[in-house]
Amino acid sequence: MILTFVAALIFVATLVVVIWQPKGFPIGYTALIGALLALVTTVVAVSDVFTVVDIVWNATLTFVAIVLISLILDEAGFFEWAALHVARWGRGNGRLLFVLIVGLGAAVAAVFANDGAALILTPIVVGMLRALKIDAKAALGFILATGFIADTGSLPLVVSNLVNIVSADYFDIGFAEYAVVMVPVGIVAVLASLGVLYLYFRRSIPQTYDLSALDTPATAVRDRVTFRAGWIVLGVLLVGYFVADPLGIPLALVAGLGAVAMVLIAARRPRFAFARVGARAAVVGGPEDVRGQQRSVAEPVIPVARTIREAPWQIVLFSIGMYLVVYGLRNQGLTDYLSEVFDYFGGHGVVATALGVGFVIAILASIMNNMPTVLIAALAITGASATGLTQEVMIYANVIGSDIGPKITPIGSLATLLWLHVLDRKGIHIGWGRYFRTGIVLTLPVLLVTLLALAGWLSLIR
């Protein structure tokens, strides 16, 4: 009984500090301190450390590699280039621009994970809206839509969200197997999100905007070599994800090789290869930068060392530490209560299972953050008596609840907290009260539609 109380206390204390994020105290160290306390108090055993590392290493390293690739492409101008193209496709129609930006956010979230969409695309959208001189009220609608779609659009692929990777790894779900289930469900989630976002912000969306205020997309590209190579690397990665499954190759290796390739290209390594490319370019006049000045392609443009440092390495420590803390709850039997709740829903059919598990997880994720929630739920699903289709519905409902549910509150995901911080630095403040009032209205209908789509699709294909 005492250890049960200690396990709960360590979990709550660790979670509070992680959400609070004291300045100069990274979340990874906080989680590790929580894990150390769990070890010292014997809430978890030393053997549990190896179990946890085995569970989370592939997920966290895959996530870090994908974010690193997105950071390098951002430095090359990839996302700004895409946003400027989207703005031009809007042809001066404000409502069409809104739809296209939501679509761009969903695409970026699916390929580059939710953090990439929220943290990289948002500043670009803010800059574009300011260039178009769209008023603050209308701009806020676009900005909130970008932040919202970053999570609701992160369902389709295993690599679209750290939550997805952790769940797929834990339940041994392959990349292709996951995609068969979640790509159609993810499309429904994006369409539902678009519909809800449009209805909510339709009165503030401007009728028109001035295209002449925008730069041409080509001016956004700061490193043409890395920009062009990025398309090839992304194509190879997508093929690699599908090929890796039957060969038993971890996704971390595939994504890691893609990240290494992007780092070497951005750093112009090996030198001799880029020197030859530079020599050939010089014969035909050489490339020009955005100011029209001659520049050698062999010369690095991107600050690679800084970009590598900015990758979310703390996530690796956070995942190991937080999961150990959560494992302490499991060791003391606290996840058994959630297993009983899941079993109750599982006894009432596929739709009840999807809705019940999905909404319970969404509420938990919005209160205590989605990463510990998905871990707790995974342990609870394992402890439940459900098998077959019912268990599969629980697994995917856990993913949906953990991906979409966090949008209800600012503390639901670390990406949202960082996103709000980025907006503050841009002079755009969204209070927690305002966020909650908007978040709950937008999230609940999208969550409902998506969970119903999951129940229907799984019933159809199974």
UniProtKB/TrEMBL annotation:
Compartment(s) of residence: Cell membrane
InterPro entries the UniProt entry points to: Arsenical_pump_ArsB
Coiled coil segments of this chain: none
Membrane topology per record: Multi-pass membrane protein
Top-rank taxon, per record: Bacteria
Presence of keyword Ribonucleoprotein: no
PANTHER family for the chain: TRANSPORTER ARSB-RELATED
Protein's recorded name: Arsenic transporter
